[in-house]
Amino acid sequence: MHFVAALDRVPEMRAVLTLFEGVATGAADGYGRMAGKPAATLLHLGPGLGNGLANLHNARKARTPIVNIVGEHATWHTAVDSPLQSDIRTVAANVSPWTRTASSPDTVGADTAEAVITASQGQVATLILPADVSWTSGARPADVDADAEGRAVDADRLQSVAQAIRNAKRPAFLVGGRILREPALSTAAAIAAAAGARVIVETFPARWQRGAGSPVVERLAYLAEVAQVQLADVDCLVLVDAAPPVSFFAYPGRSNAVTADHCAVVDFLAPDHDIADSLEALTDALDLDLETVRPSLNQPTTPGRPIGRLTAKSVCQAIAHTLPENAIVCDEAQTSGTSLPTLTAGAPPHDWLALTGGAIGQGLPLAVGAAAACPNRPVVAVQADGSSMYTIQALWSMAREGLDVTIVLLNNRAYSILNLELGRVGARRGGRRARAQMDLSQPPIDFVSIARGLGVPAVRPMSAAALVDELNRAFAEPGPHLIEVEIPEVLRGWQKQVTPHVLRGLEHLPLRAARRIVRRLLDY
């Protein structure tokens, strides 16, 4: 409460009220990704931190700078085990490498400064603030120098990576993290082109600057069997600010590796390395002349205006057809959005924020934070129905703050991704009780009424052409808008092409035939 009261004395800090801690932590993630500096959450004791844990998990995977300020009972009150007493440090340790409890007013300033500096290095930092430390006088602010330069790549590592690339017949760069922002992405693409390497983007990028004029790159597939075909002939995979690729889940009788046995995986960049200097050093180590290299760029292309009925494909086509320049796309579309990345490759330049940690309920809060960080840019939240219900309260914060967010709510009345995985793990499918756990049709969820009840204008177009009109209207008007689109369960289309039998058979097909199937899957 003392922190809240202090907001009136520190007008430089913007306070955004959310109705649930999971929205606060997801919004901090969106803000940190787009602003490139820490956002702060204010959470109420251990249970409040627990409520926000899922989106802090996503933020940790995205290496987003966040400072959690978690209130705690007065130091002399913790011993009585009152109802809200818990072990906050143990809870925080799941997502926060840096955790500290402020022991007295004398330490609060320095503790906070260290938390900000730590978070600025791409981490979640958690400062636990006991009530009596807050209300006791004597605290003094401390200076924060969060602009520490990244370190240079070790010379031995640099030479080892360069030698591995030179020795490879079919090298590839797996790029992620800070590399997916300009000018780093264009530089990495130029190095790869000069070295004869492919460029592949990690499956779930934290922030990817893409669209017309950006380098043509692949994206590593979500399905392990498809990714294995993508990487089948790669004999040297260079990790450029990316983690080693593995399958999202384990499956009975199958390897969790997506690279071939003969592929050498070499780690080039760590999170604390300086990007520009490191890429320049690799260019010199490979003796490349980037002035003569012209990587392929995505040309401006706009899909035609869709007509007819609403399907997952026509919805994605409508979004790509209308996407405004400099938009920020928060992608939690799940199975219904599989064609959207391909359709927007040549769209006006935009940023793409993905579900980095796989913990659903991220999309709407992420949009809150992105819109707060970039008030002059349109934000598009492409949101699946099931995962939206985890943090639907974010709509109220959008309305309260007047955030320019357009939500496309993809309502197929099912957890389609779970239906897909049910078959892939080898479980028997088809039983009435099992199907019921993936079904959201009874009772049907009325997202238009929910949005209006939370203060966000909402519509439900009934055709692809009407959807285009509503998107154009939402992009032209300030403030939040929700567009609910009712579509068939996309899994039926996937089942025709992505059955476990077909996926298992990919490894036995000639590489050219397997790749032909993979291209169809990635464009579906």
The helix fraction, in percent, is 25-40%
CATH H-level homologous superfamily name of the largest domain:
Thiamin diphosphate (ThDP)-binding fold, Pyr/PP domains
Distance between the termini: 51 Å
- The fold-level CATH name of the largest domain is Rossmann fold
Q: Spans with pLDDT under 50 lasting ≥5 residues?
A: 492-497
In short:
The protein has 524 residues and is an alpha/beta fold. It folds into three domains: 134 residues, 3-Layer(aba) Sandwich (Rossmann fold), CATH 3.40.50.970; 138 residues, 3-Layer(aba) Sandwich (Rossmann fold); 212 residues, Rossmann fold.
How would you describe the overall organization of this protein?
The protein has 524 residues and is an alpha/beta fold. It has three domains: 2-135, 3-Layer(aba) Sandwich (Rossmann fold), CATH 3.40.50; 155-292, TPP-binding domain (Rossmann fold, 3-Layer(aba) Sandwich), CATH 3.40.50; 312-523, Rossmann fold. The protein has 23 helices and 16 strands. The chain has helices spanning 2-6, 21-35, 45-51, 53-62, 88-92, 105-119, 131-135, 155-167, 184-195, 224-230, 275-285, 312-322, 340-343, 363-373, 385-388, 394-401, 416-424, 432-436, 447-453, 464-476, 491-497, 500-505, 511-523, and strands at residues 39-43, 66-72, 98-101, 124-130, 171-175, 198-201, 208-210, 218-219, 236-240, 264-267, 327-332, 350-353, 379-384, 405-411, 458-459, 481-486. Strands 7-12-11-13-14-16-15 form a seven-stranded mixed beta sheet, with helices on both faces. The protein has a five-stranded parallel beta sheet with strand order 8-6-5-9-10, with helices on one face. The protein has a four-stranded parallel beta sheet with strand order 1-2-4-3. Helix 13 (340-343) links the parallel strand 11 and strand 12. Residues 492-497 have low confidence and may be disordered.
